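Worked example

This section walks through a single chain of length 79. The input is the sequence exactly as stored; nothing has been trimmed or padded.
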Amino acid sequence: MEEAMNNAERMEKDRRTDSLLRLKMVRQHTGLSPAIIYRREAAGTFPSRVRIGERSVAWYKSDIDDFVAVGGKYRREDF
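Given that input, the structure is written out below as tokens.
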């Protein structure tokens, strides 16, 4: 029951105050190469990017912080 509450709380992140990080900053925060970031994203083991323009993407900082906090145990559906 408590786990379900934690998952519900995670799903309700307030994105209005969340920063967006471009690829360069995501690389600095995670230490991962672009190829690994995109590969893990496709596998569901890295946060999903959001489109911020026609040819621009970014990641929510809170999602990257969650990824760094749990390391290799990250699963998108958990956050």
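What to look for: The radius of gyration is 13 Å.
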